[in-house]
């Protein structure tokens, strides 16, 4: 019941768990935990219990990071390479240099000099014919596919 109270307070879900070392969990308790979304770790060796809980915490952190990345917009300043415009219509495919910030897949592109004219959203980034998820100033030139 204490763990259930933690779950209700929007505390990180990895801390709303039960670690049962060398203890049998009754079927009723397991059923209640499953219904309420509480994770129960059991092991007869303390190191196995520690390892499984540590892995679960790592997985939860990665989920939170990935969920946050979809909502975040990373600002950047791009320089379009005049001789590297491959497609002018949807999807736009151009070569760019990242001058400042980070260019990531999902970044909306606009032209500030033209009253923030919206061009589209970055669908893909390629460096040396390999897809990458982000580009920074140190990476040199990359090709970008913009749609929308």
Q: Summary?
A:
The protein is an alpha+beta fold and 148 residues long. The chain has helices at residues 2-8, 27-36, 46-71; strands spanning 17-21, 39-43, 76-87, 92-101, 103-104, 108-111, 117-127, 130-132, 134-135, 141-147. It is elongated and about 70 Å long.
Describe this structure in words.
The protein is α+β, with helices and mostly antiparallel strands and 148 residues long. The chain has two domains: 2-71, Translation initiation factor IF- 2, domain 3 (Rossmann fold), CATH 3.40.50; 76-147, Translation factors (Elongation Factor Tu (Ef-tu), domain 3). 29% of the residues lie in helices and 41% in strands. It has three helices and ten strands, in the order αβαβαββββββββ. The chain has helices spanning 2-8, 27-36, 46-71; strands at residues 17-21, 39-43, 76-87, 92-101, 103-104, 108-111, 117-127, 130-132, 134-135, 141-147.
